[in-house]
Design a protein that fits this description.
The chain has about 120 residues and is mainly α. The protein has helices at about 1-45, 50-80, 85-95, 100-110, 115-124. It is elongated.
Length: about 120
């Protein structure tokens, strides 16, 4: 029986040894594939290099858009300031809708001083 026990131990030992040898091979295989993947990514990024002139053009375009929006807003405010509104209309809207004087004036100016349209807008 001792020979069977030794044979079993050898078989167990024999099975374990190749597994230990296979595991490091698998680990290095995994590491190699990771390095290859990393090289693919860096190669791709190098191909996609962004030119500084493209960035400069994009920033200029964004800056121009912002300037245009600011100018349009200022022009609208100037147009609204030209609209004549009645003090009584402002007070009526403030009292009925319970809003600030600034909001009441703004709404009236947006509706060219028409109190009915302003009240309809505020109730909706």
């Amino acid at each position: 029986m001792a020979s069977k026990a030794n044979h079993t131990e050898e078989a167990v030992d024999g099975e374990e040894e190749p597994k230990e040898e296979e595991q490091p091979a698998e680990k290095t295989k995994k590491h190699d594939s990771g390095a290859a993947d990393l090289e693919k990514v860096t190669d791709y990024e190098e191909e996609k290099e962004i030119l500084s002139e493209d960035i400069k053009n994009a920033m200029t375009k964004i800056g121009n858009q912002l300037s245009e929006e600011r100018q349009q807003k200022l022009d609208k405010e100037k147009e609204l300031a030209k609209v004549v509104i009645k003090k009584e209309d402002v007070e009526l809207i403030m009292r009925e809708m319970e809003i600030t004087k600034m909001c009441a004036e703004r709404c009236l100016r947006e509706h060219q001083g028409n109190i009915v349209q302003a009240l309809v807008e505020l109730t909706n």
